[in-house]
Write a structure and sequence with these properties.
Structural class: mainly alpha
Number of strands: 0
Largest sheet: none
Order of helices and strands: H
Oligomer: single chain
Number of helices: 1
Shape: rod-shaped
Distance between the termini: 81 Å
Helix content: over 70%
């Protein structure tokens, strides 16, 4: 029974580690996507300003 309890505890700890790692990865992907969109908008605005000055 003791080995079975340790096995269940190990599975629970492993599941928590995998879950936390997955959440961290998802948060990093979301932050990266937000930064990418912000950079794209900034470059588009900058490009429009430069295009208007050159015209």
């Amino acid at each position: 029974m003791k080995k079975f309890g340790i096995l269940i505890l190990a599975i629970i700890i492993f599941a928590i580690i995998v879950y936390v790692t997955f959440i961290i990865a998802v948060v990093e992907i979301i932050v990266g996507a937000i930064l990418f969109i912000a950079a794209a908008i900034f470059l588009w605005i900058l490009w429009n300003k430069l295009k208007n000055k050159l015209s």
